[in-house]
Amino acid sequence: MRILSPLSVKGPAFKGPALALLLLGGAAQAQDATPCAASITRIPAVVFTGAGEGYDPFDPRVYVEEGSVDLRNDGDSPCALELTFVGAQSERRELKGPASILDFEITESPGSADNLPTGPDRVSARGLRVMLGPQQVRSVPFFVRIPAGQGARPGIHTGELLVSIVSAETGSPMVLDDEVLTVSAELPSRAEVNLAGVRGLFEAGVGSYVMDFNELTEDAERSIFVQVRSTGGYSLSISSENGGFLAHENKALPDRVAYTATLGGMSVTFAGAAASPVLQATNPTNAAGMSYPFTVKIGRITNQLAGKYQDTVTITVDPAG
Questions:
Q1: What is residue 16's DSSP assignment?
Q2: Rounded to the nearest 5 degrees, what angle is found at the Cα of 280, between the Cα atoms of 277 and 281?
Q3: Which end of the chain is more exposed for a tag (fewer CB within 10 A), N or C?
Q4: Are 154 and 47 members of one domain?
Q5: Measured on CA atoms in the order 182, 51, 100, 106, is the torsion positive or negative?
Q6: What CATH number is given to the structural domain containing 304?
């Protein structure tokens, strides 16, 4: 700052107002940049919808759903972050249902089998590396996978993860923000039946098998294994087109040959052509299912006319409840 005053000179006195000039000068100081200020703004719930059924424990495919975490940085400095996913109740990532638990994984890409490891806390768990620029808003994708072949009971299975953004700068990492992620999958009540050796194991569609006795003889027996798998309890029923008789191929003839049948050692009572419940189970099966021998024994043969005799037996499985 400089202060200038009027100059004094010799000569007649100068009459007029006194003058003082004040000059101010200097550079404005720049405002300090704000540091990284990252936060989580939204985490939508992840809901498994695979093939409209949620999760099928008998499906050999891995079920994958995409999730996302919305982030923002209100600071003027970039943020080097790590997104960690830790079980809200324990280290284990799990979906709990009415009577069963499903394990699930978090990965960086849909085809990756590299499950991000969890840890005892949010800081020690390894997560997704994220760079967030100054004043940037972005959505970070991740993928939730349910491995195939997990036996579970029907019903909605849910779980929670604590998703945290951890500073990945050098020095001691610290949690900047966290939110809860909800994951859910519904398991349908499902039961399937298969005739062993007729087709591939539990392929879609209706399988058929011809139990050929060749020339009928009294007390002759034939057997086939009936395979069942179910996500819960189930009921096996059997119906006979002719009510437990082999009828002559000429439907106009009254000749018939009686037979008896057992399923899993239990006698089958045919109530005409209606389905008769034979076996009920309260527990689910594993993916391989349960096998029950179905045995047919030819009854008394007297003076029936020669010809071809046959019956059509239908085996049905229904999920309990």
A1: S
A2: 165
A3: N
A4: yes
A5: negative
A6: 2.60.40.1090
DSSP code for 271: B
Residues 6+ positions from 86 with CB-CB distance below 8 Å: 118, 119, 121, 122, 125, 161, 162, 164
pTM, whole model, 2 decimals? 0.73
Question: Taken in order 53, 54, 60, 65, is the CA torsion positive or negative?
Answer: positive
120 and 54 together in one domain: yes
pLDDT tens by residue, 85-102: 988 777 788 999 988 899
d(CA 97, CA 153): 7
Task: Give the chain's domain count.
Answer: 2
> Does residue 183 share a domain with residue 43?
yes
3-class secondary-structure state, position 113:
coil
Q: Identify the domain containing residue 219 by its residue range.
A: 191-319
* pLDDT tens digit sequence for 259-275: 999 999 999 988 766 77
User: Does the pLDDT at position 10 exceed 50?
Assistant: no
The token pair that represents 194 in the structure block: 């298969």
**Which two structure tokens, joined as six digits, stand for 268?**
């089958």
62 near 145, Cβ under 8 Å?
A: yes
Note the pLDDT tens digit of each residue in 43-87. Answer: 999 999 866 567 888 888 888 999 999 999 999 999 999 998 988
**Pairing mode, strands 175-187 and 46-48:** parallel
> DSSP states of 179-228 as a string?
EEEEEEEEEPP-EEEEETTTSSTT-SS--------SS--TT-EEEEEEEE
Residue 320 burial (CB count, 10 A): 16
